[in-house]
């Protein structure tokens, strides 16, 4: 087929109602679009077949994971260009891509059919989450979702996250390393919780044990960490044993809803609430409130999204749901605060650290790219591609204020009204 790139570019511009912001290269070697920037490569016509059967993000995601589309040049620049075209055009473009009845979309599908040729629908890549059982955010289904995301090999996570093994937003200074920034984040949380020697800390979604280790080692806290990932638990227990802290830390493979041995002096929940889901968030807040002693503190570190004009219309991101965080949901910051208050907490402080997550994600992407061949050997080419796209796209989303991340410090304030927090808990810097 001669000059496939020009035909695809023309079709895309008609569909989107504007010029294509990136250069396009097709499987026949032809190119179209602006020069001097990154190039979107369509390596195989199977990518078009995926878009016909699944118009929009999921079709593109499947083609990316399968290696049928790729990027030459700076991935962040390409994602930023496409985000400006899609995110900031409002509901018009998204509605068009979602509606099979739209005449423009039907015409585009017919044009794509002529270019793609005869075909059956390609099978989804093996890395796609399938076979979910149980209702969304039931204990059984949550365990499946967590396993899909976290049980892909601890060595892979070591490669991406680095020695800190902390899988959440770091807390940066101008010239710090990733390990410095993650240590500073853990210490910030410990200080916000006012941890002291002998305090009981529950770390909900404890990951590979980094917060538990920091709290026990640096503050003498007695820690219970819970996770649904067996691989994480095995790894965390070994780290704890290696540091001689088994007398202070217990790691359980347990749903937080099954923890019954309160009260705790403090609870940390770092990057875990995104897995809870809107239908279960009040139960989450009630459970943690019930596990704290009067005067106890909760530090809830959570990614947020911008509010929707119609919150009932909110949908989980198709790519992330299928390949990264199955059933994961983001809530607006205000909704999280309200739910914590409804459960009885007094929210004493909210710190927004959105820019810090963009910096963190860029370091993780750099780690992945530097160890690409090993990452592929440890998982699969598709899995490595998933993580590169997911982390780079998330970095752009944080930079553009599409999503944010916040630390909520909440207290189970007793009837006396004494919250136990300082009059000036934070000092602002210019």
TrEMBL record:
Pfam families: CMAS
Composition skew (Basic residues), residue ranges: 133-142
Enzyme category, top tier: transferase
Stretch forming the signal peptide: none
Highest taxon in the source lineage: Bacteria
Entry-linked InterPro entries: CFA/CMAS, CMAS, MeTfrase_dom, SAM-dependent_MTases_sf
UniProt entry tagged with the keyword Disulfide bond: no
Keywords annotated in UniProt: Lipid metabolism, Methyltransferase, S-adenosyl-L-methionine, Transferase
Biological process according to GO: methylation
Chain spans, region Disordered: 118-144
Gene3D superfamilies referenced in this protein's UniProt entry, alphabetically: Vaccinia Virus protein VP39
Enzyme Commission number: 2.1.1.-
Keyword Endoplasmic reticulum: no
Record domain Polyketide synthase-like methyltransferase: where: 156-396
Molecular function terms from GO: methyltransferase activity
PANTHER family: CYCLOPROPANE-FATTY-ACYL-PHOSPHOLIPID SYNTHASE (PTHR43667)
Family classification: Belongs to the CFA/CMAS family.
Protein name listed in UniProt: Class I SAM-dependent methyltransferase
Organism from which the protein derives: Streptomyces litmocidini
